[in-house]
Specification:
single chain, mainly alpha, elongated
């Protein structure tokens, strides 16, 4: 089982590259059980979307 620290690292890496099958499955398992990491994942996605909109506005 991944630690919360490992999950946050994987979530950040997933913004830069596609995770392999094992990483994705371990991440999903952890997120099903850890509401704090699930919340962090949602916040990271919201931030990513906001930055994409900001970049589009700037172009």
């Amino acid at each position: 089982m991944l630690s919360c620290r490992e999950v946050t690292r994987l979530l950040s890496l997933a913004q830069e590259r596609k995770l392999n099958f094992s990483e994705r499955m371990q991440l999903k398992m952890h997120l099903m059980m850890c509401k704090r990491c699930k919340s962090f994942s949602g916040n990271l996605n919201t931030l990513r979307k906001a930055m994409q909109k900001f970049k589009q506005r700037d172009d």
